[in-house]
Amino acid sequence: MDQNAKKLAAAKAALELTELEGILGIGTGSTADYFIDLLGQYKHRIEGAVASSQASAQRLKANGIAVFELNGVGEISTYIDGADEATRDRHLIKGGGGALTREKIVAQASRRFICMVDDSKIVAKLGGFPLPVEVIPMARSFVAREMVKLGGQPELRHGYTTDNGNQIIDVIGLEIDEPTQLEGLINQIPGVVTNGLFARRRADILIVSGDRGVEQLV
Ligand code: 5RP
User: Is the CB of residue 141 below 6 angstroms from any atom belonging to ligand 1?
Assistant: First the structure.
């Protein structure tokens, strides 16, 4: 099975686990896109969705699903999203698509977080995938130097601006032995909006799709 078929299978499994009522939180990326397209068939069962990016908002609307601002809704029942890397204890790196800050906000505002990955994303230790860090532009060089102090090699994502008008530094080489601790440490650096470690708010259910089917880690 190729990677796209695995992503689609993960999205189908996530849909089966999702209570189709009220307002859902929807992530960003190709796996989230599969989920959105499947959700379109059930749009009459939900009120709508809060999107973690402008791209997902557009796709939701194209599927006839109402999109709400987070400020206009209360707690969201379920947040559904993909990830760039995941451990079997459901810690994640996200933000390859640049939507990490809104993803983290909507995940945190949701009672349950279902994450969908194909098995190529499963790692024993996070950090093979460059850690995205969203920064306020005037702090870019300062934050990059702080990343070097933490043992990383920062690289600016050239020509990219987030939906929030900020920039992203991708950091390779970090030793992520304690994801929860490192997430907090990086987020405390002035100028950092957030980083792509999802450990403090990890997935509640991790769906892993592989050649032999779909596994649920809880
Ligand atoms: C976007 C993300 C995505 O969830 C992550 O990049 C995975 O994307 P895909 O489903 O396309 O592999 O964090 O910011």
Answer: no
Are β-strands 92-93 and 85-86 bridged in parallel, bridged antiparallel, or unpaired? antiparallel
pLDDT tens digits, one per residue of 166-200:
999 999 999 999 999 999 999 999 999 999 999 99
Cβ contacts of 54-61, under 8 Å, gap ≥ 24:
54/163, 55/28, 55/97, 55/99, 56/26, 56/27, 56/28, 56/32, 56/99, 59/33, 60/26, 60/36
pLDDT band at 31 (very low <50, low <70, confident <90, very high): very high
Q: Among positive and negative, which fits the CA dihedral 118, 203, 57, 171?
A: negative
At 34, which amino acid appears? Y
**What is the 57 CA–ligand 1 centroid distance (Å)?**
15
178 is catalytic: no
The pLDDT tens digits of the residues spanning 95-133 come to 999 999 999 999 999 999 999 999 999 999 999 999 999
The finding on whether 207 has its CB within 6 A of some atom of ligand 1 is no
130 lines ligand 1 (CB under 6 A): no
